[in-house]
Structure formats: structure tokens, C-alpha cells
Automatic annotation (TrEMBL):
Function statement: Catalyzes the specific phosphorylation of the 3-hydroxyl group of shikimic acid using ATP as a cosubstrate.
Residue sites binding ATP per the record: G17, V18, G19, K20, S21, T22, R123
Family classification: Belongs to the shikimate kinase family.
Name of the protein this chain belongs to: Shikimate kinase
Transmembrane regions listed in the UniProt entry: none
PROSITE patterns cross-referenced by the UniProt entry: SHIKIMATE_KINASE (PS01128)
Alphabetical list of Pfam families matching this protein: SKI
Domain of life according to the entry: Bacteria
Cellular localization per UniProt: Cytoplasm
Record-listed Mg(2+) binding positions: S21
């Protein structure tokens, strides 16, 4: 199949720890497309880390900046974009992603996610809390929403390269 026919950006969505950035970077390499990590783009635009934005301005402010940065990333040359776990949960950001990209949900069991983020994660939603419990609660609330993505890929235990191959197969 002709992958150059892939016009839309590819946007990876899913919970923290599922491997969106690692998988996205490798997927972009295989497709010879640029890769952009949306959280990194937000940090560059704000001149602050995601944790600092949450701390100083709160989550709603972060979500608004996140939507604007993702909207900007959708323009221009097609690329692979890894989003922060909450981006697709925001109604406006999700509508934008669904309308303009191929949205891929990377899905894994909360036990697998907790193992991948480790015990001392600095993400604002996990810091000082039990990651396994938070991730399990977030999965309950968010999975039905992530399920609106165009393509679903499970990455339980599998190495990231296996996940990349599954995506390549799914997008043909
Ligand atoms: C968040 C996920 C994080 C980051 C922020 C909020 C979330 O991104 O955007 O901490 O709400 O799930 P990752 O999924 O890249 O960790």
C-alpha cells in the first residue's frame, strides 16, 4: 500500500505510560514523517514544564493551551503526534483530533501502565499518589472516551516495536 497517500496527521492517544511518545517516534521513523510530542511542544511554547503549568495556573489553563498547540500541530506537513493522556478527553480537543487526523488509541491494562510509569512518577496527576490506583480509576473513566478513536491497538506487555508494526498494519 502507498503510505504517501496518508494525508492526515496520525495522532496517538491513551493513558500515561502506554508508550505514546516512544511508539510515536518509531512510527514516524518508519513512515518517514516528522514526529512531535504535544507535551514537549506545550512546554516549549510556555517556557515551563507541564508540572509547573499545572501548579501555577491549574489544569483548565493547561487544557486550553494544549488544545491550541494541538490545533497548530494539525496544520502543515502531515506528521505523527503523541498527545498527553488527557488531551483526547477534552471535548473540544477530541472533536478537533477526530475531524482532522487519524486517531489511534494505544491501550494497555492499568497494571502494565503502572509498571511502565514506575513508582516515583513526577506527572502532576500521579505525584504523591498510588499510580496503579490512579491509572485504574482513569481507565474506568477515560477508556469509553478513548474508544472513540478511529483505530484501537493493544500494547499489553508487547515491546514497542511490535506495537509499531501493529499500527502500520492497521493503517495499511
Ligand atoms: C496527563 C498526561 C500527561 C500530561 C499531563 C496530564 C493526563 O501526558 O499531559 O500530566 O491527564 O493524562 P502523558 O500521557 O504523556 O504522560
Amino acid at each position: 500500500t502507498d503510505r504517501s497517500a496518508q494525508q492526515r496527521p496520525i495522532v496517538l492517544v491513551g493513558l500515561m505510560g502506554v508508550g505514546k511518545s516512544t511508539v510515536g517516534r518509531r512510527l514516524a521513523g518508519r513512515l518517514r514523517l516528522p514526529f512531535v510530542d504535544a507535551d514537549t511542544a506545550i512546554e516549549e511554547a510556555a517556557g515551563m514544564t507541564v508540572a509547573e503549568i499545572f501548579e501555577r495556573f491549574g489544569e483548565p489553563y493547561f487544557r486550553d493551551g494544549e488544545r491550541r498547540v494541538i490545533a497548530r500541530l494539525m496544520d502543515g506537513r502531515p506528521k505523527v503526534i503523541a498527545t498527553g493522556g488527557g488531551a483526547f478527553i477534552n471535548d473540544d480537543t477530541r472533536a478537533l483530533i477526530l475531524a482532522t487526523s487519524t486517531a489511534i488509541w494505544l491501550h494497555a491494562h492499568p497494571d502494565v501502565l503502572a509498571e511502565r510509569v514506575g513508582r516515583r512518577d513526577t506527572r502532576p496527576l500521579l505525584r504523591g499518589r498510588n499510580p496503579r490506583q490512579v491509572l485504574s480509576e482513569l481507565a474506568t473513566v477515560r477508556n469509553p472516551i478513548y474508544a472513540e478513536a478511529h483505530i484501537h491497538i493493544t500494547s499489553n506487555k508487547s515491546p514497542h516495536d511490535t506495537t509499531v508494526n501493529a499500527i502500520l498494519q492497521a493503517i495499511g
